[in-house]
Amino acid sequence: MTTVQSPPAPPTATRPRVVARTGLFAVLAANAAVVAYFFAQAGFASNALIVLGRLAGLYGALVMAFQLVLVARLPWLDRRIGMDRLTSWHRWTGFALLWTLLAHAVFISFGYADGAGVGPVTELVDLAETTEGVLRAIVALGLILVVGAVSARYARRRLAYETWHFIHLYTYVAVVLAFTHQVAVGTTFTASSAAKAYWYGLWAVALGALVLGRLVLPLWRNTRHQFRVSAVVPESDNVVSVHVTGKDLDKLPAQAGQFFLWRFLTADRWWQANPFSLSAAPDGRTLRLTVKAAGAGSAALRHVKVGTRVFAEGPYGAFTTLHRTRTESLLIAGGVGVTPIRALLEDIEGHAVVVYRVAGERDAVLYDELRDLAVAKGAELHLVTGPPVPDKLAPRELARLVPDIVERDVFLCGPPPMMKAVLGSLDELGVPKRQIHFERFSLAG
Ligand SMILES: Cc1cc2nc3c(=O)[nH]c(=O)nc-3n(C[C@H](O)[C@H](O)[C@H](O)COP(=O)(O)OP(=O)(O)OC[C@H]3O[C@@H](n4cnc5c(N)ncnc54)[C@H](O)[C@@H]3O)c2cc1C
User: Fold this and answer.
1) What is the CA radius of gyration of the chain?
2) If you average pLDDT over residues 154-161, what whole number do you get?
3) Is 170 a pocket residue for ligand 1 (Cβ < 6 Å)?
4) Please, which of 174, 301, 427, 429 could form a disulfide with 143 given CB 3.0 to 4.6 Å?
5) Using a 6 Å cutoff on CB, does residue 337 contact ligand 1?
6) CATH classification of 324-439, choosing from 3.30.2090.10, 3.30.160.270, 3.40.50.80, 3.40.50.720?
7) Strand partners of residue 439
């Protein structure tokens, strides 16, 4: 048996995620300060409600621009923060935005109604009829309320991903309406050409980031690489591996642990894009995904034909060796969560322990590959089988399998209940948070 041990990777001194997060929020804070400056420079209205309403409107719009950057899928941010975290921030800032814009509408209506001596509804109708841009703002707020309602957890769980996503696209209409409303009636912008120039610049950057990340980059990459299915390999009754080739794949900046949004251009499924991780480290010639049938889209991949064109957006995700802090690692996979773990094992340097948790041996897809890789890399592999209860990855069991666990980076991917339990075990064992890296197979929370 030959044991090839790569030299250990040096621990990262500056944590890429912290750098990106600090940078992102520093930019937001700086813009909040600039907005406050221009707001104060334009002078205050005599009615406090109007002052509050205008300020809420300005900050609401700033948050809206920030929202676009969060979902722009810019590679630099995505690799450091991860699409799951960025999407989760987008979700929570989305709710904050909704309340801020509601506050804007309520304060402004009550404030102007106070001055005119009429009721707030009468005042709002009057403003909509007589002031340019107000009707647009009301429509924009209505759209954002609808998007907020369908994004609430209760509704989100009951809607198909595609339906929810389609409704969500109306936010872009709201963004355009809200922006034109602001530059038309916002006193901060009508009073100062510098403020107006700043506002146009801010929105140009936010929209530019979105167009670049969501449109230009994916189109450019797909035109350049021309992805196609090269093989479809059943791994078990409900799991299949799809191999994809293309041109110049060595120029594609994909890393083990990352995923793509895959759209297989068949007559009946071209409209559906699903996230699947790479199940092997990219070798410059092919990409491989391994898919468990969860719904109609993933089940259909078993029947996809060799030669089918593929539109792949990505690579995305921060579940990579970029975030390593230690020289040794522990990779924990549960079920089909083995896909990025299998790819990472290929890529990882330093001693690795792999724990693969499945119900029974038959469910351990890609196990032979893992075993061969473990032998080649001098890694330790544990296949843990059995029903979910008793918890075989409880703190005591994990510590027995990996006695030096607190000294290792831990990479974890599996079904949500298993991940929750393992994260609890790691916490109890005192593994520092910065050493724990995980990928959830869900984006929209
Ligand atoms: C980052 C990531 C990596 C993943 N890697 C793998 C993998 O390597 N192997 C594997 O078998 N599964 C993986 N999944 C899960 C896989 O994406 C879903 O099982 C698949 O999309 C289900 O689609 P469907 O059409 O078969 O089922 P549906 O019934 O249409 O969807 C089932 C659920 O999947 C989720 N989903 C569907 N489409 C999307 C989408 N475009 N974006 C986000 N969520 C979506 C939704 O929560 C939906 O409710 C991954 C998921 C994520 C988020």
Assistant:
1) 25
2) 81
3) no
4) 174
5) no
6) 3.40.50.80
7) 413
